[in-house]
Amino acid sequence: MQLFLETIADLIAESGLAHLRIENIAMIVIAFVFMFLAIKKGFEPLLLLPIAFGMLLTNLPMTGMYHAELWNLDSGHELDFGRVLHEGGLLDILYMGVKLQIYPSLIFLGIGCMTDFAPLIANPKSFILGAAAQAGIFLTFIGAALLGFNANEAGSIAIIGGADGPTSIYVSSKLLAGGGYSVEVGTIALAAYTYMALVPLI
């Protein structure tokens, strides 16, 4: 019996459960909430479900799926994709598609194929919504500039207000190329996709 209890204790100590931190637990809970909203409530499942699944996998301890140290580089260093392929996990390799700007093009193509113009043709006045979104870009740019962000950072923030996730990722990756900015492409992508997915809830 003593040997059995020691074996169970060793198993628990070496499992991921023993290495869970409070921030991991919080993000896993949020991931499950997003999955519920995407699957059960149908809130933008094409966006919210992949985000939630990525959040879940990234926060599972001891899985080796994501290595932040491979991506957190000083401004003087370039990203080594060979190192990512040899030392990275599944999510690191998938993230290369973002860094190499493969996913935005594919997502643009997919969204274009899925677009239904019937509501716009039936009600041409709805194009005003698109005009409002473009006005949001300029207003947000001015607001970000007033808060102290430089032009590239303000442009990256502003594009969220008038575009969808792929556009935000593409534009911000171009504006923030080279690093050294207080805003990151990952933050822009998370903000853009999260607000898009939560629009039906709001």
Q: Care to describe what's here?
A:
- The radius of gyration is 21 Å and the shape is globular.
- It starts with a helix and ends with a helix.
- With 202 residues, the protein is an all-alpha fold.
- The protein has helices at 2-14, 22-39, 45-58, 81-87, 90-99, 103-114, 118-122, 127-146, 151-162, 165-175, 185-198.
Characteristics:
202 residues; single chain; mainly alpha; 11 helices
Short description:
The protein has 202 residues and is mainly α. The protein has 11 helices and no strands.
Residue-averaged pLDDT: 79
Class from secondary-structure proportions: mainly alpha
Secondary structure tally: strands: 0
**Apparent shape:** globular
Low-confidence stretches: none
Number of helices: 11
Fraction in beta strands: under 5%
What does the largest sheet look like? none
